[in-house]
Structure formats: structure tokens, C-alpha cells
Amino acid sequence: MTLKERLFEDMKTAMRDKELVRKEVLQISRAAVLQVEKDSQKTLDEDGVIDVLAKEYRKRSETLAEIASSGREDVMSRIREEMAILETYLPKALTEAEIEQIVREAVAASGASSARDMGKVMPLIMPRVKGKADGRLVNTIVRKVLEG
Q: Which string of DSSP letters, residue by residue, matches 77-135?
């Protein structure tokens, strides 16, 4: 069963079980996948669906950071619940140590020696961490390794 099919089946189950938050998150996620397919006029593969789900997760993460100071615990708990639901569909995230190991391997393979060589290193890293690590975190680690 593909990830897209799993989203649909889980959404139907959530509707039957009257799990409102789960149903809404899955509906929004499916709609986002279908919109990307419509816009690009092609069917998304597993990686494409994961990218869309990661984007939905990132949106919620950014929203959570924005409203953290507001004291709206009800909204924050709802967003955390939505993020937990999305996490079940995303690949396990890499730890900083795992990312750093991948970065060091890419630096050695590319022969990069300074921060100016980021353009050589990033194309080697991103396919390996796609969907498993935040791009900003990867960028930070690459800078740290190249400058250190």
C-alpha cells in the first residue's frame, strides 16, 4: 500500500471512529498532495508525498513557534497533536550526530575545505537526508564542519 493510499484509508477509519483531529489532518494532507499533483500535472511518488507531508509538518512547527508566547495552551496542544499525527507518516528523523556523519563523508568525497565549497557538498548531502532532516539544520551543520 502506497503512502497516498494509506492516508486515504486512515482518513476513512478516522471518519468511522469519529476522530475529528486525525480526520482533519489527513484531509488537509491529502488535499495538499492532490493540489501538488494537479499543479504539476503528474502523480507523486512516495518521496513526493513525503515532501508534502514534511511541508505540512513544518507549517505547524512554525505556527507553534509563533504562538508560543501567546499563552494559548489550547491551540498549542492542538497543533502538537496534529504534528504527532503527521510524524507517523514521515520517515524517522536523523539525529544531529547522524547528519554530521553524512556531512563529514560528503566533505571528504567532494574535497571541500572552506565554507565557499558548500555548493559542492550540499548536492551530495541532500538526497541522503531528504525528508529525514530539516534543511536549515543540515546547512548549519555543514557550515560548522567546513569552518571547524
A: HHHHHHHHHHHTTSPPPPPHHHHHHHHHHHHHHHT--SGGGHHHHHHHHHHHHTTTS-H
pLDDT tens for residues 13-29?
A: 999 999 999 999 999 99
Cα separation, 133 vs 139, whole angstroms: 10
Residue 39 buriedness (CB in 10 A; 0-12 / 13-18 / 19+): exposed
Taken in order 71, 73, 75, 76, the sign of the CA dihedral is positive
- Put simply, whether the predicted model's pTM sits higher than 0.85 gets the answer no
- Give the class (CATH, top level) of 96-147: mainly alpha
| Amino acid identity for residue 8 in this structure | F
| Topology given in CATH for the domain delimited by 3-87 | Hypothetical Protein Yqey; Chain: A; domain1 (1.10.1510)
Q: One fold for both 3-87 and 96-147?
A: no
| Cβ-Cβ contacts under 8 Å for 43 (sequence gap 6 or more) | 37
